[in-house]
Amino acid sequence: MAKDVLFNKIQTIERCISRISEVYDDNPDNLKDYTKQDSIILNIQRACEIVSEKKLGIPQNSRDAFEVLYANNLINESLMSDLKSMVGFRNIAVHDYQSINLSIVEMIIKNHLDDFKKFTYEVNKLV
């Protein structure tokens, strides 16, 4: 993948993270507002999709992409596991939106936005 493409994808992930933080605003009540909820979930989904696009090798699915990155020593095992879990959330968000558990969304915001930052840090080292 060309360096300028990687750089643009990194910037998009960082914009998504920023937007999630801005809309959530450290206030769980913001998840009760459907417009804010949609914005947060959409940005988590976007970040997951962009992260899963960075592939080395031929993964069978989005989750496998992170195993390939790990096998190529581009991410560590812990980050691989966390990102694979995010893909699971993204799949629920895309295919079964009504069943999204807002406490999981809140947990992702509070505990896992840094996973995207860690990923962009690792990709930045390649650029």
UniProtKB/TrEMBL annotation:
Domain of life of the source: Bacteria
Pfam families listed in its UniProt record: HepT-like
GO molecular function term, any single one: hydrolase activity
Keywords, in A-Z order: Hydrolase, Nuclease, Toxin-antitoxin system
Keyword Methyltransferase: no
Transmembrane segments: none
GO CC annotations on file: toxin-antitoxin complex
Family membership noted in the UniProt record: Belongs to the HepT RNase toxin family.
Protein name as annotated: Uncharacterized conserved protein YutE, UPF0331/DUF86 family
Originating organism: Clostridium intestinale DSM 6191
Lineage: Bacteria, Bacillati, Bacillota, Clostridia, Eubacteriales
